[in-house]
Amino acid sequence: MKRLLLLCFVSVCISGIALGQDQYIFPYGGGQNKLFIQEIIKLTGKERPKICYLPTASGDSERGIINWYELVHDLSVEPYVQRVWISSYNQKVSFEEMLLGMDAIVVGGGNTLNMMAIWKAQGIDVVLKKALEKGIVLAGGSAGSLCWFDNGTTDSRPIELTVVEGLGFLPFSHSPHYHKEEFRRPLYHKNIENGIFKAGYAMDDYSGIIFRNGEPFKVVSLGEEYNSYFVSLEDGKVVEEKLEAVILK
Q: Which structural domains are found in the chain, ordered by start?
């Protein structure tokens, strides 16, 4: 029995999950909104959590940053923004110190490919892993959902949708904007059928899945028309399973 308990303890430590500390990731297909932010607030367990918006994928768009502050101005949060287009003259705090001081981090939409390259160049990918292990809630839509998975489809390159590699915090493939853009669904199916992607999760805009410790915990949506799906390969055929969701109001 003692040996079994020791092995269980070691297994938990290796997985990066601190004892008693759940890890939450909340990707949604797209569509930043108050109801999703309220879910993030609940996940932090804080009355007034510090939530940082990370707008890397949009090139630190000023419009996006303004929208962020407008979105949360009447919610119980302390809002922050972490730009990456900075210099040593205008930022005196490291990315690690800033992001690891948050209760939640919300990643905005835009160009996933460029965002991943910048994060790796700046070491932000490593910081986000530390944030997850610390129990900081990670969330986001579009590029901000795709980044947490192994890989998925992206419009980050010219002409057509292609494959992009994510951080791999969630060991599945992913497709955001599943029913909003006509080529998303057939290409996602094709990539799973051809073995380019493993099984994964597809999300319409305004639908998302809260993962706890790497597994689906709660599916949420803003309406019956917005859905999330588990897409897999069974007997050589792609199977799409619509997930039952809690409609947020």
A: 22-247 (3.40.50.880)
